[in-house]
Design brief:
Helix content of chain A: 40-55%
Order of helices and strands of chain B: HHHHHEHHEH
Number of helices of chain A: 7
Structural class of chain A: alpha/beta
Structural class of chain B: mainly alpha
Shape of chain A: globular
Number of domains of chain A: 2
Radius of gyration of chain A: 17 Å
Strand content of chain B: under 5%
Radius of gyration of chain B: 15 Å
Number of strands of chain A: 9
Number of domains of chain B: 1
Oligomer: heterodimer
Largest sheet of chain A: 5 strands, mixed
Strand content of chain A: 15-25%
Helix content of chain B: 55-70%
Chain lengths: ~180, ~140
């Protein structure tokens, strides 16, 4: 990385500061907002990667409604991009089962709870994104935890609902990954 | 060689996939001597990798309404191509895990892959997102539904 790249992407402390700001902005709310982190955000908060370009979360529709105004304000004030995907509606597909296997993160806040997708779900999101950086992230994930059995990944994939125009490309990315990653 | 051109050539030689995205953004946002950069990149044996990045960054800049930058990048790509056209296929990021290399090398190449004989998982669409974040500073999520 060139010297002037220093400071371009977000570091863990930047994301924590954003979360603290969100937490304090939600003062007075009567329940905890659950945020399920994914992508580079989760890898960074889990110390698997140093930086992330943005902050990505899935939230229930109800929680999304409660925080979307505050999130937009923090985005504007802090100059960071925060993507909150309601009900697992990711850009190319819906994944409603995002909360089933998620684990609570040790990060503590008063008004928000952070959850991490499990390894299989995180690998699935990376496979479906299908960029070179995602493949490098998959290697990091597998090295840090364990290899996810092919059958588990296939079952998770069957739960996603692709956007109509993305059905073929997602299927092709997934099948190609399965055939190359699990090659003996 | 001035620092910027040196840094760019060094990064083309030694980056990983994430570094290549940063590098493509540098090509969009930094000032450099295109002629000197082309010469040094060819000398270092990374003319095709830089040419591919320049073309991808040019397409992304054009799509994001930055025609002057796109024009400069297209000129850099043209100079690289005319001085040292590609001879054999190679991976942009040779540090990728083996399964990823197999996926990239067996996927149908797009026009830019074919032009530069470069297998890469970085395209102009992916870069446009980074231009929003780091060049034009449009933070509002483009992918949010």
């Amino acid at each position: 990385m060139l010297p002037h790249h220093e400071g371009r992407e977000l570091r863990k402390r930047d994301v924590i500061a954003v979360l603290e700001k969100l937490d304090s902005s939600l003062e007075g709310i009567q329940r905890k907002i659950k945020l399920y982190c994914l992508g580079g955000t989760m890898l960074m908060l889990s110390d698997l990667r140093d930086t992330s370009k943005d902050v990505d979360f899935i939230a229930s529709r109800q929680d999304f409604r409660a925080i979307s105004g505050t999130v937009a304000e923090i985005e504007r004030q802090e100059g960071v991009r925060i993507d909150v995907f309601p009900d697992g509606m990711l850009p190319d597909y819906d994944y409603k089962d995002y909360d089933i296997y998620a684990r609570k993160s040790p990060l503590y806040f008063k008004n928000i709870e952070i959850y991490n997708l499990d390894t299989a779900d995180l690998i699935l999101t990376k496979v479906l994104a299908g960029r070179a950086v995602d493949y490098s992230d998959i290697k990091l994930l597998v090295q840090s935890s364990h290899e996810v059995p092919k059958e588990v990944l296939v079952k998770r994939y069957e739960k996603i609902k692709p956007a109509p125009d993305k059905k073929e490309i997602l299927k092709s990315r997934f099948e190609k990954f399965i055939s190359e990653f699990y090659k003996t | 060689m001035p620092l910027t051109e040196y840094n760019i050539v060094d990064a083309v030689k030694n980056s990983d996939s994430r570094g290549y995205k940063h590098l493509a953004i540098d090509l969009v946002s930094e000032a450099y001597d295109a002629s000197m950069l082309a010469k040094e990149a060819i000398k270092a044996g990374v003319g095709c990798k830089l040419g591919y990045l320049a073309d991808v960054a040019a397409q992304a800049s054009q799509n994001k309404g930055l025609p002057e930058i796109a024009s400069k990048l297209y000129a850099l790509a043209k100079e690289l191509y005319s001085r040292a056209p590609p001879k054999q296929w190679s991976l942009l990021d040779s540090s990728l895990p083996d399964f990823a290399k197999r996926i990239l090398t067996s996927s149908p190449p797009n026009e830019l892959n074919k032009k530069w004989k470069i297998y890469a998982g970085l395209d102009s669409k992916e870069l446009e997102d980074w231009i929003d974040l780091y060049v034009t500073k449009e933070y509002a999520a483009t992918s949010r539904r």
